[in-house]
Fold Pitrilysin family protein.
Amino acid sequence: MKRLSMLLGLYALAAAVGAATPGEPVVTAAAAANPAASASVAATGPQRFTLSNGMPLIVQTDRRAPTAVHMLWVRVGSMDEVDGTSGVAHVLEHMMFKGTKTLPPGEFSRRVAALGGRENAFTSRDYTGYYQQIPSNRLEDVMRLEADRFANSQWPDDEFRREIEVVKEERRLRTEDQPRALLAEQLFATTFVASPYRRPIVGWMSDLDAMTPEDVRAFYRTWYSPSNAAVVVAGDVDPQQVLAWAEKYYGRIPVHALPERKPRTEPVQMGLRRIAVKAPAEQAYVAMAFRVPGLQRVTDLQDADRDALALMVLSAVLSGYDGARLERALSQGPQRVADAADSAAMVMGRGPALFVLTGVPAEGRNTTQVEAGLRAEIARIAREGVSEAELNRVKTQWIASQIYQRDSVQHQAQELGIHWIQGLPLDASERLLALLRDVTPAQVQQVAARYFGDDQLTVATLLPQPLDAPRARPAAAPAAGRRH
């Protein structure tokens, strides 16, 4: 199902970190040494342990192939930055490949490759993650390497000066030269006022220009603590052996206190916001972002959680499969107004939630017509509802897709890491799937009527400019103003 990964994972990660959820198996290193004490986690499925320094370890055994995925999750992302250093979480992710007290720059990646593995990292608004996929008999080697990098990252200033240029070029290629990405950046900057979600993950170019090696080191020293991280391992592994290695390499890392995280609550939006973005492009584009409630839990649901679940189902009804409502209404037939139309329920995350509708006008049509068409489909559901048969079609595809995704140990580890970040139980996927299956047509109709008014809407429209037009580039900071 083409939208499932967005529905179940996009902007995931929203609650307290490291807190044991009632009902999930949690084992301390000391208890694991006692077979009787650890008997409660002998069942199949993911197991959670706590190392002697309090760092969580989650292990999912899957013996279908002799491979394993090792992931380190840190509960820090661009939302934890402060104004003036936007992008520092992402820059630090790059610098984590540039050496430790014992490894020179680039040696980490060379050693993972020599083990027959592949590796990468990622930064989001809510978290940073690092992973290696390796033959399962080399798991201890990558655990040793990653624990060393997590605890002892260091690099020369010259490495930073080279890598910051790489990050700036990444910003140019992925944002400034991509009109829809540029529009999305402006949409978030306009939608949010107080929330740090208003800042781009890659950072503003002026902040990257002004960033110093010490800015990145300070961010590393502040947030990279075992009290703010978790290890996730999935694949052909023995949980008790993984626990022993994790205790050996991660359990000895000292813990330090984290700064207090201020709430930075987004104020209620008080009217329609509308922006236009001019950029060289072949087609116009419109994105409509509605403020909606987020999903914070999968047990003891509150009204906001129930509405968030119904919004996820609404998005699936609109664009969750080939031939869904938006495609049929806007992109098919002689009177079609859009080449493409889509929806996304971004209801999981540490920050505020959005429901986004997007569309690309067909030839001879414009964004005003596409916007009207998107609004009409929401209004139709609010007025007429959806049928049980339509919901059953969506839910059947969810089940099939969830089963298919479990064939990937990478997906299993990713899912478990996201659940840990958000403070959800280890069986959150099953719980979430059950909750989505219980959403009724009446609930979908109710949220369609409740959350799509103008007062909670921001609209961004791309106004195409000639492709050969000079692209606006941010001016480089004057040399005297640079801090590196």
